[in-house]
Amino acid sequence: MLSLLHQADLRLLYLVNSDGSNPFLDGFMAFVTDFGFWRWPIMAAAAALLIRGGYRARLLVVLTLVAVLVGEGINGTIKHLTNRPRPHEQLANIRHVDRGGVQMSTPGPVEKGRSLPSSHVANNAAFAVLVGAIYGRWGRVAWLGVLVVAYSRIYIGSHYPSDVLVSLALALSYSNATLWVTRRLWRALGPKWTARLYRRYPDLLPTQTELGSAGLSRSGVTIQFEQEATERTEASARGSEFKV
After folding, report:
1. pLDDT at position 221
2. Is residue 190 a part of any domain in this protein?
3. Does a structural domain hold residue 37?
4. What is the pLDDT of residue 138?
5. Which residues contact 49 (CB under 8 A, 6 or more apart)?
C-alpha cells in the first residue's frame, strides 16, 4: 500500500514539474513562491493594518502572527524529525525552478532535509482559515491563493505532493486550535482587560450580524460559538441586575 502511494506521489510530481511545464509557468510560479520578494510587502501590509485597520483587520494580523509562530515550531520540529530531502535534491530529472531560471536536478547527499512539511503551504492555509473565521466568504479568496502556492511548490521541484497534503492537514489543525485557545482566553480575560470591547465582541470574532451587513457569512460552528457567548453575556447581565 505504501509503495503504491509513493509511486502515485512520484507520478503526480513529475506530471506537475515536468509534463505540465512551460516558460510562462516557470516565471509565474517562481514569482509566486519567492518569499524573499513577498516578505517586505507582507510586513508592510501587516503594519498598515495594525496602524490604520479596524478591529477585524488588527485581529487578523495578531491571530495570523500567533498561528504562524505556532506553525513554525511544529513544522520545524517535523522537518527535523523526518529529514526528508526536497525532490530536486533527491531525484533525477526534476526541474528546479527559481527566478534565476531552470536547472535540472543533481541528486546527492543532503545534510538537512526540509521537504516535509511545506511552511509556504502551511502558513498560507493557516491565514486562509483565519480570514474565513473573521471575514466570512473572503476566506474562499484566500484559499485560491493557497491552491496557487501549493501548486507552485510542487511545480518548482521543492516539495512532493504528499508534503503539500500533510502541510494542509497540519495548518488546519493548528490554526483552528489557535482560534479555539484565543477565544477561550478572550472569554476569561477580556472582561477584565477591556470590558467595553468585550461587550461588543464577547466571542472575540465579529458577530454574524456584522458579517451579514457586509455581505459575509461564517460557518454554523462559528455561529454556535457566538450564540453560546451571547447567552453567557446575557446571563451575566441578568445576574448583575438581580444583585442590584
Report:
1. 42
2. no
3. yes
4. 87
5. 57, 58, 60, 61
Mean pLDDT by 10 residues, the chain (244 residues): 93 98 98 96 97 96 97 97 97 97 94 96 98 92 97 98 98 97 96 93 78 54 49 49 38
Give CA–CA dist 117/96, Å, rounded. 18
Q: What is the DSSP letter of 20?
A: T
Q: Locate 121 and state its grid cell.
A: 503551504
Joined together, the cell numbers standing for residue 96 give 528546479
Write out the three cell numbers for 48.
498598515
Q: ω before 107 within 30° of 0 (cis)?
A: no
Angle (nearest 5°) at CA 17 between 14 and 22: 130
H or E element at residue 43:
helix 35-52
- Convert 28-63 to b/e letters by CB count within 10 Å (16 or more is b): ebbebbeeeeeeeeeeeebeebeeebeebbebbbeb
> How many independent structural domains does the chain possess?
1
Question: Which pTM was predicted?
Answer: 0.86
Determine the pLDDT at residue 2: 84
Its sign, for the CA torsion 43, 48, 54, 55, is positive
Among 219, 202, 194, 232, smallest CA distance to 134 is for: 219
Q: How much is the pLDDT for 237?
A: 47
Residue 155 lies in a domain: yes
CATH label of the domain that carries residue 125? 1.20.144
Domain hosting residue 163, numbered range = 8-182
User: With the CA atoms of 173, 176, 179 and 184 taken in that order, what torsion angle do they form, in degrees rounded to the nearest 10?
Assistant: -80
Structure-block grid coordinates of residue 66: 500567533
The DSSP H or E segment spanning 123 is: helix 119-135
In a domain, 237, yes or no: no
